[in-house]
User: Fold this.
Amino acid sequence: MCTPTLIAPMVGASLTGGAGMFANAMFGVQALSIASGYHGAKQQADATYDYNVRRQNATIGSAVTTATRNYQRLQNLQQSLVGKTAAEIMQSTSIYRKSVATAAVSAAGAGVEGGSLADIKQEFAQKQGEFVSQKIAQLDYDTYDTLLRMEDVAAQQKSVTEGTIFRPIAQPNPMAAFAQIASSGAALTRQFGTFPEV
Assistant:
């Protein structure tokens, strides 16, 4: 430690007796104050850092949970849309086949043959084809919309994650504290020491 009584001979001063004891006591108080300030600042910086890390982890964890839930919901929606469309097409196809069979039997019972029966079957096939095309087009649109919504979920999660990244606060520098203590010792030596006249 660089107490004023040890510094005095190095700078050509005399610091003895009551002045030396008082300078050393003042030095001790100032050094303790500087060290306590450094220690308090370090504890505050560490506590702030720990709080920021916990808050960041909680926010990111919440964002991941929310994104996972939203992805799952959108995937379930997509599977539901595919299943619903397939069921509607299958039901429509079944109705189409029954309608064609019923029309053929009715036409045969009425004595209609040849081109007229083929025209009836063609009309039913055309309507069925239009229905299936419409359903597939709607499914394509709904699938594209679902994919866009999934991209939105990913963008939201990225935004939340990047928004919670914090810059670590600066830690107090122990060298600055040591320099303050040394400066205090030199200042007390100048204040209480006796320098030879030149």
Remarks:
- The chain has a mean pLDDT of 85.
- The chain has four helices and no strands.
- The chain has one domain: 4-168+177-192.
